[in-house]
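Annotated sample (chain length 473).
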Amino acid sequence: MAQPVSLRSDLIQRLLWWIVPIVIAGMTVHWIFERSLLRNQFDASLLEKATTLATLVTEKEGRFELEFADEYMPQYSRETHPFFFQIWTPDGEVLERSYSLRGEDLPLVRGSLASPAVFETTLARGNEVRCIGVEFPLRLGTDQDVNPATSVTIVLGADTYHLNQSLKRGVLEVGATGVASVLGVSIAVLLALRKGVRLLERVAEDVSSITPSSLSRPLDEDQAPVEIRPIVASLNRALETLRAFVERERRFNSDVAHELRTPIAELRAAADVALKWPDAESKDRLAVHAGEIAAQMAGLVESLLELATLESSDAGETEEAFDLGKCAALAVDQAQRGEQDGRTIELELDQDVILACDPKLWEVVLRNLLDNALSYSPAGSRITVRVRRDGEGAAVRVSNRTDALDEAGVARCTDRLWRATRSPVEASHFGLGLSIVQAASAKLGHNFAVRLEHGVFHASLWKTGRDAPKDAR
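Output written by the structure step:
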């Protein structure tokens, strides 16, 4: 079984996985530049000291002199971490060396003022020395004229302890900066994620608080982060579907309870009568009455189940090619077999009304439309059924005269379990036929409408357009 994953922990790990190496890389680059800067500064200080020594060298009549006193520059004579220098005349003779060299010689490496020679060496007693070698032109005589052909070479160095100390301080500064950066970024990431994840947690809390009684209240999409609004919108659509399903089940239960109350009461009353007067005739009447009530209850339950099936998401998923004209002719033939009190059904249809959909839905539509027309039309009247092609669907109209409906009744005739009070079949008709037709039409992707015109009731289905075609009205 997969372990649950925390979005906050996963984001923190992923962000730190990228941020920490980036910070380390940045600190490394910074340290490289810092080390180069420290070395350049160290070399610049050596060049400055070498330049100072060069100003103390003079030449008179071919003789070179260094006006230098150790007591004024103790850094060249101290025992620990001293500075070193050595000066050569143009012919390569040593003019002077610092006391700190203890008689040793520094390597003679020449460079110019513009490009000094920088190198490192190790003295015999173990001192690691970083040196700079420069060839300086001398100022001759009292008139300070420069003679480029006359110059001295000065190599000046310092124990690398001084540079190493600076580098250590730089390492500590860069390291401290890196650690502080990582900590600062980590804290910023935690705070930012806490606020960001809080929005997700709020959505999760709203989802977890959903109960059957709160299905009508959708989740607030405006409060959700933009990235998960499509998910919240999908949840709202799912909740709406669930709410409709729950409402349909509640309505179904209510309808069944409401409609079964009367026949159950009649059955109990008949049973009480039979028990009070237990003669053979009463028992026969009870049996007949119970059979009629059972048939009525079975018909009601079947109609309600048919309506519930049509309103489910699985109805109408089967598609096959069939001839709607033949289906209509069969429905008319079946409707005319019963007792019709002189009513006739006239069928008008186009040739080759071939559709690709679920034929069972059309059978439900035609059966209930004809049953409704036969139930509410007067005896001896004519019922007209017209079927024709309408785009990729069909236009169907069933018309019958009626004295049981007015305009107010037409507005309510598609409501569940509504029956016209003036209908001659009010007691045996359940008031579900047009509700079933409306649900089946929706599954077929067709429009459905009813109207009353000059005492004639028209029930129409059509595919294209907002209004029913003129010949299907």
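Annotation: The first helix runs from residue 7 to 55.
Annotation: The radius of gyration is 53 Å.
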